[in-house]
Amino acid sequence: MNGWCFLMNFRFWLLLAGVMVGYGVLMLANPVRDSLRDGFRCLRRYPALWGTLAVFGVCYAAFHQVGLRLLEFQILPEGERPILQWARAWYLPHAMQWEAARNAFVPALESVAGIFNNVITTFPFSAVAALLLLVNWKGHHLVLNRALRRRFGPWGWVIYGGITVCALAAILKPLALYGGVPWLSRFIPGKWLLPPAFLIDWLSILFEYLFGVCVQIYLILLVDVWVLGIDFTPQHLLDFAIRRFSAVMKWAGAVLAISSLTIYLPQIVALLPPFTSRVNPYAMDAYVNHIARPAMALFLIGLASVQITLTFHSESLRDAIRDHFRFARRHASALTWFLLIALVHFYGFHFLNGILRAGLGEGTVSGLGWQLCAPLLEAFLAAWLLAAWVCWFKKTGSSRPHDKNWVAY
User: Fold this and answer.
1) What is the average pLDDT across 330-334?
2) Are 233 and 48 in contact (CB under 8 A)?
3) By CB distance 3.0 to 4.6 Å, which of 92, 267, 310, 326 could disulfide with 359?
4) What is the Cα–Cα distance from 379 to 372, expressed in whole angstroms?
5) Is the pLDDT of residue 6 over 60?
6) What pLDDT does residue 112 have?
């Protein structure tokens, strides 16, 4: 028995050493290592890059994962309450480790796609942002309205109206879904409440995505400011990001249309009375998590530079897609390396997150504490890779792409 334990420990440390050596080779031998280094330097200069993502991530975890669990514990009957306990012995059998390894791939793929699209989870802060937008806080509402009308003409009013409706849904979401629906369920059957609740949730998700894209454009421009070495004020940079958002609007609309048709609308339709008895909820869950979400992530990765091209160059969507394929052919090797590095880091994070959540327990104090700390690590990874992506994209378009001191301070 002692010999077997020694052999298992030796294999573990040998595997760990191999992983560390492989990671070192990956980080030192890739052609985008200078941009990865510049990403770290940018984070040191502007901690707001990862601090912004951290605030959004911690707010989401505190509200949706921890707060909602505590709310359900208070309002649900005794037998339906989620488990809450002070402590639990570490418990992680081999099967749970493999399950964490399998379940980490799709979230990692979505996180990589988020670098090129929207890496920010804005709920529940999106409700506050929607309210501030509607009351024209610091004039941002008028800036958005003018930018949409200038770029889209009369259609700008239609887009503006759609964003306004989605903003109202974002304000209603935390009130209706986490307060009104549980209260109304005492008087109205749940099958009649779920469709309007999902409709509000879907419209709110549209606003959350658009708000996240606008914040991501702000972070991209913040990295660009560091690269160019120019002065700015946060107010003016945010207004500029809102104006650039209008240039990305067609691409954002296309992403919303595809994700709505493939992910959100099938879930809403499945809850309507004629289809409720015909749709298997487990089959719907399998379709969303194993087909639709990975396919959407691969689609965004396959068009990685469209958003950043529109942000910097304000082209038409057709020209941006054409330029992306030209860019991908010209820098196919380096782009593949960057995607591999991003996937390795995000997979490592989501695997670690799954291991700790399973081992500590979802309802323990230590497990809930880790759920509040995990967004900090994820925010740092996302901000670093986003900054490195912007630096590399700018570097490939520079007249001095091989000059290591190309960044202006």
Assistant:
1) 89
2) no
3) 92
4) 12
5) no
6) 93
Q: How far is CA 163 from CA 114, 131, 135, 205, in A?
A: 21, 12, 14, 11
Helix (H) or strand (E) segment spanning residue 111: helix 105-115
Residue 212 clears pLDDT 70, i.e. is over it: yes
Facing residues of 162 across strands? none
Question: Who wins on pLDDT, 273 or 56?
Answer: 56
Dihedral over Cα of 200, 245, 118, 215: its sign: negative
Q: Half-sphere exposure (CA, 13 Å, Cβ side) for 340?
A: 16
What token pair was written down for 360? 């500590």
Confidence check: pLDDT of 289 > 50: yes
Residue 145: what pLDDT?
81
| pTM for the predicted model, two decimal places | 0.84
85: β partners: 364
Q: Give the CA diameter of the chain.
A: 78
Rg over alpha carbons for the chain, rounded to the nearest Å, is 23
The mean pLDDT of 264-292, rounded to a whole number, is: 75
pLDDT of residue 408: 38
Looking at per-residue confidence, does 72 or 370 come out higher?
370
**Which long-range contacts (C-beta less than 8 Å, at least 24 apart) are formed by 238-242?**
238/140, 239/139, 239/140, 239/143, 241/214, 241/215, 241/217, 242/140, 242/143, 242/144, 242/147, 242/214
Give the number of other CB atoms < 10 A from CB of residue 409: 9
- Alpha carbons 90 and 361: distance in angstroms, whole number: 8
β-bridge partners, 364: 85
The answer to whether the CB of 69 falls within 8 A of the CB of 84 is yes
If you search the block for the tokens 């590095």, which residue do you land on?
Answer: 341
Structure-token pair, residue 316:
């038409």
**The token pair that represents 128 in the structure block:** 């506050």
Token digits for 274?
């004629």
List the Cα angle 342/28/409 in 5-degree steps.
80
Of the candidates 198, 374, 223, 179, the one whose C-alpha atom is nearest the C-alpha of residue 312 is 223
pLDDT at 142: 82
Among residues 195, 334, 339, the alpha carbon closest in space to that of 269 is found at 195
Cα distance from N-terminal residue to C-terminal residue, the chain: 61
Q: Alpha-carbon distance 318 to 303, whole Å?
A: 12
Q: Domain limits of the chain?
A: 121-217+238-268
